[in-house]
Amino acid sequence: MKIIFATDTFWPRISGATVSVDSFRLGLIKAGHEVHTFAPEYPQWEDENFDPDSYENVHFLKSYKFFVTKEDSFVHFTEGNKIFKLMDEVKADIIHVQTEAPMGMIGWHYGRRRKMPMVLSHHTYYEEYIMHYFPKAPAGVTKGAVRKATKVFFNQGDAIIAPSQMIKDVLKDYGIKRPIVVIPTGIQTEDFVDNEKALKKNLKKWYKEYPQFKGKKLLLYVGRMRFEKNPIFLLKMVKKVAKKYPDVQLVFTGDGGAAPELKKIVKEMKIEHLVTFTGYVPRDRMKEIYTLADIFTLASKTETQGLVTTEAMLCGTPVVAIGEMGTKDVMKGDNGGFMVPDDMDIFCNRVLQLLTDEKLYKRKARQGIKYAEDWTMEASINKLVKVYEKSVKGTYKRRGRR
């Protein structure tokens, strides 16, 4: 099967959506399908030593930095005719629109105009994010606009892919009538399995680059540096934990617009000795930082899936996370760690338990590895291909006017 992915987020942009898009891309290729991905280029390539030519059939297109989140790049709408011609050359069986921004919109219009099978994915819960992007706008107006736009956009798909049951329920509440199939992003297990000797050698490089890690227990966060990810909670958490367990270090891995402000807040809180920002880490080195960490900590209450929790578990790193939205669907309780309410004392107590109880720690680490193994990419790919096949065959009742 020939498949087109239209996405506004791809490497080197770090986000859950990027991981999902690329994981499904690689999984489909591994299963014998041909995937052509259309994505924005990123001006920061030179700084990241990023090689766009290393990605098979990924078409990077002229873009501009988004004024709200400057780590994002959006494809110019003026590229529309060029993109249509490139997509025509692919002669795809189906188009899978991954995002709702310019590249996704161009793909959406392409699917409608060419009257071809079209599947849409919902990665981001914009109703919760929108106030972080436009804080001065009236909440009722912006959230209402998001709901209306989402309803119009997704009702044009043959089928909708939701990463969790919670997102499926949200979309149904918006009034979306198209079939919604829950398919979580599976883990590419090979990304988190390494030769033990080689891994140990690489871990030594981390200690050389970050000598402050030596002799410390590392609490890790992986993801975008955005305030909607609730990073302030983690800063307050490490300060509180350090009062009872001084040899601790909070590590932020990832990039984003909030990073400069977070560093200022760290200084204001006088916890520079407790916090490290690593910035962007290449995907093939993520297993190293997950393995190096002692506990994975996630305070975000807006995760559509919380894939990072299962990645950490697969590396034998227990998780302490606030059990809301996608995180709740993924962890399903205290699997591989502790899923806690939005309560600072409870969160800190669970972290301290894992830091001080060796037997508990080892049990949670083993439990996490076993639990994460059930979240394989192969299972998710099989489900996605079935959705594609039904869309191509016209099994789903045809969507409305295009």
The CATH architecture classification of the largest domain is 3-Layer(aba) Sandwich
Oligomerization category of the chains in this entry: single chain
Structural class of the secondary structure composition?
A: alpha/beta
Spatial sequence of strands, sheet with the most strands? 3-2-1-6-7-8-9
Features:
402 residues, alpha/beta, Rossmann fold, 7-stranded parallel sheet, 6-stranded parallel sheet, 15 strands, 44% helix
Question: What is the gist of this entry?
Answer:
This protein is an alpha/beta fold. The protein has helices at 16-30, 45-48, 80-90, 102-113, 126-133, 139-154, 165-173, 196-209, 231-242, 259-268, 286-292, 307-314, 325-331, 344-356, 358-372, 377-393; strands at residues 2-6, 34-40, 58-61, 63-65, 73-75, 94-97, 118-121, 159-162, 180-182, 217-222, 248-253, 275-279, 295-298, 319-322, 337-340. It has two domains: 2-186 and 377-393, 3-Layer(aba) Sandwich (Rossmann fold); 189-372, Glycogen Phosphorylase B (Rossmann fold), CATH 3.40.50.
